[in-house]
Design a protein that fits this description.
Elements: E1 19-23, H1 27-33, H2 38-58, E2 63-70, H3 78-101, E3 104-109, H4 117-130, E4 136-144, H5 146-162, H6 173-177, E5 190-193, E6 212-215, H7 225-236, E7 262-263, E8 268-269
Parallel strand pairs: 1-2, 1-5, 2-4, 3-4, 5-6
Antiparallel strand pairs: 7-8
Length: 270
Amino acid sequence: MYRSSAPRRIPDINPKPNHVAVIMDGNGRWANAQGLSRVAGHKRGVDSVKSLIKSCIQHDIGYLSIFAFSSENWRRPQSEVDALMDLLGNALETQTKKLNENGVRLKLLGDLTRFSPRIQQLAAQAQAETAHNTKLVFAVAINYGGRWDIAQASRRLAEKVERGEMAAAHVTEDAIASELVTADMPDPDLFIRTSGEYRISNFLLWQAAYAEFYFTDVLWPDFDEHEFTEALLKYTRRDRRFGGAVDKVQGDGVAPAENDNTDPARGEAA
């Protein structure tokens, strides 16, 4: 399912991101444009997820995170929420074997307690069955919010301080990161959002601090291997300085002041 049916030339991506995070937006608009229901758009979007997994394996990318269902998505019409729950349960039930065959480890990010007992059981089983796979870590955020993630990490640290297990002075950035749901994952290098929206919608707020952002007008069901390769190629042209700067004028010349006003959408000085 995740392998190419025929050999093809894979573009050389250098440097390549180790972790790609994706907000999969535009399923409903794609479906409406086709005269279909929003649910049909979500079903079509599953194929794009499979294509993305395949591409990450081909490019030897170690981590892929997708925003599948936010904590705010419960506000959608009940019929759409029910359909999304059916899709989630079916995916957990039918795709675990394929993930295993391709060496993919499934990791679910978020508060799973709100889901039905069936989905919680399938989620636990799928994660356990794929736990030892090392080809790709596939993290799926469900009932997740970045603010929730930071809040629950802070609360756990506060509880440790209350119990005397650590001093308040030891509540550092590293300490907070160690309590996030992504504690065993590197921060994303490349952050992709489809459908022409320019926001990160409460996804990986802490973790995306130094990610390179790539926004595209392509709706998620149309985001295929070619579109992903375009995003990767754009990433290779970014100058990732992480707040630092290099004086490009050597010798006694006076270099113009350089700052880190990088436009994350283009990788150019603003």
